[in-house]
Amino acid sequence: MTTLRIRDAHAADAPLLAQWAAAMAWETEHKRLDPATVLAGVTAGIADPGKARYLMAMHDAPLAGDEMIAVPAGTLMLTREWSDWRNGEWWWIQSVYVAPEYRRQGVFAALYRHVEAQARATAGVVGLRLYVERENEKAQHTYRALGMDDAGYRVFEAEWT
Asked: What is the pLDDT of residue 3?
């Protein structure tokens, strides 16, 4: 298990987050994203907490001597959805990415537990949600191991871009 610190993303993180978003789209859906559009989207999300909140998992790695450097290991994006049924907000976990060299080391679990603790401590938050590709069984196993259940919904969309 890698020791991690979780922090909010900064504007300077946008290029890496955009790169990771494009990598995730390719790995999970075999979709090629336009790099400029993704960078603009990540930049807008970081700048406006009403749009999104990005979290970074940082791993402390040795640099030289006793010096350490914080290396990004993974990320996720949070968005909010109002639920009139529950009179509260769902926090949606999206844009999950763990750098290949940190996979299967608890990076997503650390990010998830951080978000879960914040959600439980925030009045009006009713739960966490995410969506996952039907064939991504590794991710589904991870989500179940963290206490999430299949909500039984299918996602439909009408896309204009």
From this structure: 80
Model confidence, pTM: 0.91
- Cα 40 from Cα 161, distance rounded (Å): 15
Which candidate, 74, 30, 80, places its Cα nearest to that of 50? Answer: 80
What does the pLDDT read at residue 129?
A: 97
For residues 103 and 92, the answer to whether their CB atoms sit within 8 Å is no
pLDDT digit string (tens) for 74-89? 999 999 999 999 999 9
Please compute Rg for the chain using Cα positions: 16
Whose tokens are 């750098």? That residue is: 99
Domains of the chain (ranges plus CATH)? 4-145 (3.40.630.30)
